[in-house]
Amino acid sequence: MKTQHTLGPLTVHGPCPTNASEYNIRTPDGGIVAIIGRGHHGQPLPPAMSQAAADLFAAAPDLLAALENILNARCFRNDLALEHHAALDQCRDAIAKAKGGTK
Q1: Quick one: which of 12, 41, 90, 103 has the most CB atoms within 10 Å?
Q2: Is the pLDDT reported for residue 1 higher than 60?
Q3: Can you tell me whether residue 72 is helix, strand or coil?
Q4: Which of 14, 22, 11, 13 has its CA nearest to residue 50?
Q5: Beta strand 32-36 with 23-26: parallel, antiparallel or unpaired?
């Protein structure tokens, strides 16, 4: 069974009043889908690293939608430069990974 991605928009809440390294990622209805801020063996991450990770996590549904829109655009020609084909392959791989694929 393929993993279903979390629908956005996701929002970042934090830092936590009792742990400056902890951020919650929440769904529109307030459900918590992730808590960011702990590293190996539960050690707190540096606050800036936690904030950056939380921001990227929350942006993931928007990034996935943007990649899908790029691939669905009808403006691509068959004579694209090789580096453009490579970029489109990266988009396909990232989408597959986000949806539980192997890339």
Answers
A1: 12
A2: no
A3: helix
A4: 22
A5: antiparallel
- Look up tokens 């580096």; give the residue: 83
Tokens of 49: 């690293």
**pLDDT at 103 exceeding the cut of 60:** no
DSSP-assigned beta bridge partners for residue 19 = 16
pLDDT tens profile 9-20: 899 999 988 888
Range of the domain at 75: 11-98
Q: Does some domain include residue 87? A: yes
CB 38 within 8 A of CB 50: no
CA distance 29 to 25: 12
Determine, yes or no, domain membership for 15. yes
3-state helix, strand, coil in the chain (%, to 5): 45, 15, 40
| Domains contained in the chain, number | 1
Flag whether 53 is in a domain: yes
CA 21 – CA 43 distance, rounded (Å): 10
User: What pTM, to 2 d.p., does this model score?
Assistant: 0.77
